[in-house]
Amino acid sequence: MMAALAIFNVFVLVYFAVLNSFYLVLSVIAFRRLRIYVRALKSLDIDDLVSSSGGLPMSLLVPAYNEAATIVDSVRSLLTLRYANYEVIVINDGSTDATLVRLVAAFDLRRIERVATSNVVTQEVRHVYQSRHHPNLLVVDKVNGGKADALNAGLNHSRGVIVGAMDADTLLEPDALARVARPFLEDTSTIAVGGIVRIANGCRIEAGSVEDIRLPTRALPRFQVLEYLRAFLASRVAWDALGATLIISGAFGAFRRSTVEAVGGFDTRSVAEDMELVVRLHRYCRDRGIPYKITFIPDPVAWTEAPETLRQLARQRNRWQRGLAQVIFRHRGMIGRPRYGLPGTVALPYFVVFELLGPVVELLGWAAFILAVALGVVSPTHIVLFLALAVFLGSAFSVAAVVLEELSFRRYRRFSDLALLLGVALVESFGYRQLTTFWRLRGLISAMRKDVAWGEMERTGFRGATS
Amino acid sequence: MTGLLAVVGALVAINVAFAVVVIMLRIRSNVRARRFGRIEARWEPVIIGYIGGDDEVPPVPEKEVRHVLEIAGRFARRLRGPDRERVQKFSAPLVGALLDGLTERSPEKRSAAIELLGVLALEQHGDRIVPILDDPVPRVSLVAARALSNPGYPQYTAAVLERMHRYSTWSSSLMSSMLAEAGAGARADLRRYLGDETRPVFGRVVVAGSLRLLSDPESATIAADALDSNDPDLVLSCLRLIDVVGSQTHANAVRPLLDHSAFFVRAETVTVLSHVGAPSDVPAIARMIHDDSPWVAIRCARALLTLGQRHMLQDLAAGVGLAADSAREVLHGEELR
């Protein structure tokens, strides 16, 4: 028993040593990449790009299910984006609240005939509406089928060369479309681009636009701010530098329409339709020898409302983990196969070993540690040192993410917010991390039970958002 | 035990070091922002005054030259004609400071210097930018091409066209727009390039797009000659050019493309025929509305409306299927307009 415990503890130690080495390498790669990227941005005149007649037509797909609280502000904000040629397609996915009614009233919608230009199978589309005042605003009203189904209906009715996919509760910065379109202009083999998602809780928002960027006042969204910085500025920037981007957030991403159409659109069976599509695009292009680029860039910004209660957050993390499990299971044939390049040989194995199975190892590690303490195998000094190791290792990567933010975009202008972020980095290891690990483990178990429910998030509305 | 303690100690040190770096970076960026703000507050009114005709310019301290040029560049990018020329004249004594930037090791710094020189001093230093078209970094080369395509400097178009093969991964529509910026003076070079079959197809696609943006009537016949190309992108680009500047004399070259294998070529052909074709093209267009591609069907419906075939569309709209849907979309759109 004692020997088994000791062996397991060594395994856990090795596991975390490898995991943290990975994080370290990713952070270093992200640091180099971000420095170059920010310098390159300075030589780019974004206004020139916005006004250029060479911009690609874009269709922004906005699936909405029971979003009555926020939909009008969100759409109003989308109609003020600085981009020469774009249409906004809101897909009302069988909402049971006043989402459609509010849209009709706010934007003076009228029914139109619109030919579907692709034929991805979806739930029945009831009607298509167009705004009298904003001809580039369309609303597709359809029978409920889930987010992926709504996106597919939007895809069918879109006319842009590029389709942007976003959440209805997301606010885009005015130049977000111009920025996300840039990689498509710079390289015609680009088929998908992801932008950064930031947390809007705590920010002052007026007329669907983020006017004053502040940290949330509640602890839970604050932790998530830090998580998002780590995930986007460290992890995704680094994976992009390696050419192995596997995730483009469903909150905001852009895709070459023809390629999404060729792969059959978004997968309606997946609860992580964003990641699933990206992995499927990799697979499709590599199977056919099509040169392609899937990229993440950190300057197009989407602001989203983060869960503020433990229940909402638990549901979200559960869904993310279930989605990850589904994607990995569905595309398990890519894992470790050289024909799928770095996405197949490095990124996917990383996601299996550290993201999918991480919660299992971590919680078993904690259990073994507690058992070892109970059996008196480790001394009190060891206990303190191991806990300190876990805390400071975790916080080091979080503070590193704050360094990356400070080196690049410096969105949190107040010194007090910056100090608070550093403090959050230190305290998140006490409870928050363990909680998210637990929810992820539950998500993994749900995935094994083949649970496909999405879970709802109650929207409070962005107007006067403070948390 | 000691090893573990050392690791924890090292981690604490790393945490503290990172936190100090964050704070130092914040202090540095605040100091820089304040300094730039002060320079901006001092020099913006001077530049605005200069644009308005006030020739009195105080001497620019050497350490502020780069910042002042950046402010001037911001104005120049948003202005055209005599106002832009005034900003360029204001910058003329200062732009020498940017020349060192052209040989910087960092491609991003080279790009920034080229971009600023292009907007502020193409007249003086355009010839210094031309060799940078051959920069080993493709992105820097493109920034140089953009700089050389600023309005009013068609003399550099030929040099950019010679390097079109370097930009083949870029979007052709963005490149077309860039080359068209140079203005009407570039038309002759662009026309020659389009007609030259030895040139890369990508370049010809781009050039056809530029000539369309410049509405160059003399290029219509060259475009019509290029319609027998095997490359559908070139055919599409030439069709769009003919749509804008062509006439009935080019319709004969266009008609056979109704049977092209690429749906986007068929769709464009329908549109072009509705503009440069004859009434005798109506039956062919009416036949095409039954094409498998919705893009072609919608274009046909629009073309039929353009050609005054409302009744035909109404008959079609009464039916079912793609042709009927397309007819209804176009008729409905027309009613709501």
How would you sum up this structure in a few lines?
With 467 residues, chain A is α/β, with parallel strands linked by helices. Chain A has helices spanning 2-42, 46-51, 71-78, 99-107, 147-157, 176-186, 219-241, 257-262, 273-288, 310-330, 341-356, 358-374, 380-408, 415-427, 432-448; strands spanning 58-64, 86-93, 109-112, 125-131, 137-142, 162-166, 171-172, 190-199, 204-206, 209-212, 252-256, 293-304.
> Span between N and C termini of chain B?
80 Å
Beta-strand residue fraction of chain B = under 5%
What structural category arises from helix and sheet content of chain B?
Answer: mainly alpha
Low-confidence stretches of chain A: 463-467
What is the spatial order of strands in the main beta sheet of chain A?
Answer: 3-4-5-2-1-6-11-8-12-7
Q: Which key terms come to mind for this protein?
A:
heterodimer, A: about 475 residues, alpha/beta, Spore Coat Polysaccharide Biosynthesis Protein SpsA, Chain A, ten-stranded mixed beta sheet, two-stranded antiparallel ribbon, 15 helices, 12 strands, about 50% helix, about 15% strand, B: about 325 residues, mainly alpha, Leucine-rich Repeat Variant, 3 domains
Write the layout of secondary structure elements.
The complex is a heterodimer of chains A (467) and B (337).
Chain A: H1 2-42, H2 46-51, E1 58-64, H3 71-78, E2 86-93, H4 99-107, E3 109-112, E4 125-131, E5 137-142, H5 147-157, E6 162-166, E7 171-172, H6 176-186, E8 190-199, E9 204-206, E10 209-212, H7 219-241, E11 252-256, H8 257-262, H9 273-288, E12 293-304, H10 310-330, H11 341-356, H12 358-374, H13 380-408, H14 415-427, H15 432-448
Parallel strand pairs in A: 1-2, 1-6, 2-5, 8-12
Antiparallel strand pairs in A: 3-4, 4-5, 6-11, 7-12, 8-11, 9-10
Helix pairs in contact in A: 1-7, 1-12, 1-13, 7-13, 9-10, 10-11, 10-15, 12-15, 13-14
Chain B: H1 2-51, H2 65-78, H3 81-91, H4 107-120, H5 122-129, H6 138-148, H7 157-162, H8 172-181, H9 187-195, H10 201-213, H11 220-225, H12 232-245, H13 251-254, H14 263-276, H15 282-288, H16 294-306, H17 310-317, H18 322-336
